[in-house]
From TrEMBL:
Annotated coiled-coil segments of the chain: none
Domain of life according to the entry: Eukaryota
Keywords: Membrane, Transmembrane, Transmembrane helix
Organism field: Trametes cubensis
Transmembrane segments: 111-129, 149-171, 183-201
DUF2470 domain residues: 12-86
Protein's name according to its UniProt entry: DUF2470 domain-containing protein
Pfam family membership, one: TMEM254
InterPro entries linked to this entry: DUF2470, Haem_oxidase_HugZ-like_sf, TMEM254
Amino acid sequence: MTADPVAEKSGFLCMYMSNHPDTLVSYVRYWGKVTEHVVSAKMTAIDTKGMNLTYQTKGGATKEVRVAFDPPLSGYEEVKPRLMSMKADAEEELGMVPAPQITSFRFNPRMLHTAVLLAALIYTTYAPSPDSPYYSPFYAPANTLRTIIPSWMLTFSWSLVVVLHGLESFYTLYLCKKHRTGFIVGAQYWLATLALGFPVFTDMRRQVQDARIESIMKGK
């Protein structure tokens, strides 16, 4: 059986994290979902699947909670970035630090993938038929495709785009408000999500996470 690379370094990691008591308390409260008044916490073990934490309540009771990693760590090199990411999420959600502000729209090449698929859908749907005065050989592939696919497929595809992108745009608005983008940047993210969907807000979340990590590193 293959040894757990993180569990092998558990003693060292627990000793290192003992220098960050506030972070351990935030893990217990947020990731451990402990609602009691936690006054102190200690990491007692860690492996690729999660970490064990003991904590003391205001009443003096000592308890233990297991925090699972989702997804599990693939190796020891993932420990630091994962713990830092979890620290940022926990402290922000608990109100210990303000949410990072996003002040610019960031284009990600992955948005082009969705743009190409959307352009193909528009081309196939609206290409003039051979009996149209606007027809040209350029539209022949679209007309051929329309004769091959079921008649309901284009309608279903457009319905899926409208519903999913619409719902995703509401989530983007929530992120824009939370991270104080301002009207112009917020409008850019919202309109981009309406058109291109999840690649936009997933990259925005990645930008937020980068800002969180940068803030933590500056505070070291």
